[in-house]
Amino acid sequence: EGEIVRGVTCSQEEAKVVLSGIQDQPGRVASVFTPLATAGINVDMIVQNATQQETTEVTFTIPLNDVVRCKEILNNLRENIGFHDLVIDKNVSKISVVGIGMRSHSGVAAKAFQTLAELGINIQAIATSEIKITVLIDRKFSELAVRSLHSRYELEKAG
Amino acid sequence: EGEIVRGVTCSQEEAKVVLSGIQDQPGRVASVFTPLATAGINVDMIVQNATQQETTEVTFTIPLNDVVRCKEILNNLRENIGFHDLVIDKNVSKISVVGIGMRSHSGVAAKAFQTLAELGINIQAIATSEIKITVLIDRKFSELAVRSLHSRYELEKAG
Ligand SMILES: C[C@@H](O)[C@H](N)C(=O)O
Ligand SMILES: C[C@@H](O)[C@H](N)C(=O)O
Fold first, then answer.
1. Cβ pair A4, A105 in contact under 8 A
2. Residue A60 alpha carbon to ligand 1 centre in Å
3. I want to staple A57 with a disulfide (CB 3.0 to 4.6 A). Which of A20, A29, B31, B84 is the partner?
4. Closest by Cβ to A57, choosing from B44, B49, B107
5. Sign of the alpha-carbon dihedral angle for B127, A126, A67, A10
6. Mean pLDDT across chain A, nearest whole number?
7. Where are the alpha helices (DSSP H) in A1-159?
8. Ligand 2 within 6 A of A122 CB?
9. Is a pLDDT exceeding 50 seen at residue A70?
10. In this structure, are residues B22 and B47 in contact, taking their beta carbons and an 8 Å threshold?
11. Does B9 contact chain A (CB < 8 Å)?
């Protein structure tokens, strides 16, 4: 099958922001991210689930340095955006498994989830694509997660 | 700034699967995706929000051909995985804006959301990375969405 997984990366410089109670109507996420873009806040991972209810949550990450400004901007726009809660967690780590052709090898994502499960590490958020599986976990587990994923995908042997 | 956005892609061959009521405890998503991987079902986009509650939802896409099998496998494992509802929507389109360095140009994502908002197109799910912004929308809006995003990012001029 070749080396599908190329590496495991870890970012500890981001905060997780969760906006809940967002109406599932056109225009709602635009109303969140347009002001943030205007303020020059670099949003990295954005995740939003599909929902059967009227409202949903949006999770995204921003640089730690932008937490105060982000909070201020969004809180000032609470009525405009129409969200219920804004929660910011600075204690996260963003772990990514990077590779190629991972869609046709869906076992790759399952393997990442399984590895973290066996370590008792809770997965807070997930976003995947064909070349990247990204999860948010508690920062204290960063090294353990990276080391274990590295070993699970046998990455040291590729060196 | 250079050409950050390189293209807009559209996939109409996937179904959206939403599992709700999943316990936010280690091991829960592994219990969903391991059996799917074992069954050879190619899971593409996986999205899971961070939650403040005890349960959360997981959204993912699979090839339309795998819908029946996926439903069967997950329903048989309902108690094992511990989910509340399984909803499958075959009427979606997966639209991706592909580029580079999009993290440091967070206006790119905002622009995509704004474009869809102005068209009244509801965004059902979102997963982004530095090189890809992916949304799920109602299939009937596929051409309109792609055409409008193409034009918004001025992609025809790059030809
Ligand atoms: C929830 C949010 O994504 C909404 N559906 C929108 O299109 O903006
Ligand atoms: C919800 C699900 O992702 C759970 N937190 C897990 O780690 O499996």
1. yes
2. 14
3. A20
4. B49
5. negative
6. 93
7. 30-38, 67-76, 107-118, 142-152
8. yes
9. yes
10. no
11. no
